[in-house]
Design brief:
It is a single chain. The protein is α/β, with parallel strands linked by helices. Helices cover 48% and strands 13% of the residues. Strands 2-3-4-1-5 form a five-stranded parallel sheet, sandwiched between helices. α8 (160-171) packs parallel to α10 (199-210) and α9 crosses α10 (199-210).
């Protein structure tokens, strides 16, 4: 039976980057497909986007026949990633449970999003089938430097005291904010053979996010 996993954490904590990294570590030739859902999708809408992700050209109009076609496609090993899972209402989540309860399902389902864990717990029968719950937390002080150095090599030349200043003034453990600072920094030093990232540059960049410092 296909496994179900949940990746969750508050907005801006780096779930998307963490997810992309985890998927990049999967052995080849694992097939990964993304499921794109709207806000509060109905079961027919979810059925359609699942069919798109599974590369089914056309589902039968009859519900029973359509679900049999989905189940047949779910026999093939692959990973389905459903982002913004907190958008799913209870009927849609119950529909997923029914599909992943089938003994022939061999597709891993990864449900991700800010609040995804709360959405899943509204359907205890589905929550009980989650193999692993992975929280992406706010960056702690000790994690900021290694995480950002791995994210972009520019941070490897920044003095620890200056990184601490960025964290105190704008970062606040939020990966998305750090990514914005990184984007501004790379734009500032683009084309420079030996870029120097010092406090004045950091202050100028951070001011674009918060106003004058």
């Amino acid at each position: 039976m296909g496994a179900v996993a949940c990746l969750y954490g508050d907005a801006g904590h780096g779930k998307t980057v963490a997810l992309q990294y985890a998927l990049s570590q999967l052995p080849e030739p694992v097939r990964v497909r993304r499921v794109h859902v709207g806000v509060h999708p109905s079961v027919p809408e979810l059925r359609r986007v699942l069919a798109d992700a599974l590369e089914l050209k056309r589902l039968p109009h009859a519900t029973g026949a359509a679900d049999l076609m989905l189940l047949d496609a779910l026999r093939q090993p692959r990973v389905l990633v459903l982002d913004e899972a907190q958008r799913l209402p209870v009927p849609a989540l119950e529909f997923l449970r029914q599909l992943w309860d089938h003994p022939d399902t061999d597709v891993a389902l990864l449900l991700a999003g800010a609040g995804a864990e709360r959405a899943l717990r509204r359907v205890p029968a589905l929550a009980s089938r989650v193999l692993t719950w992975e929280l992406v937390p706010r960056l702690g002080q000790a994690a900021v430097r290694p995480v950002m150095e791995a994210f972009h090599p520019l941070w490897g030349q920044v003095a620890p005291v200056d990184m601490a200043w960025v964290e105190e003034h704008v970062g606040h453990g939020n990966f998305r904010t750090w990514a914005k600072v990184t984007s501004h920094l790379t734009a500032e030093v683009y084309g420079q053979a030996r870029a120097v990232v010092d406090r004045p540059l950091l202050e100028r960049v951070c001011a674009r996010l918060t106003g004058p410092v």
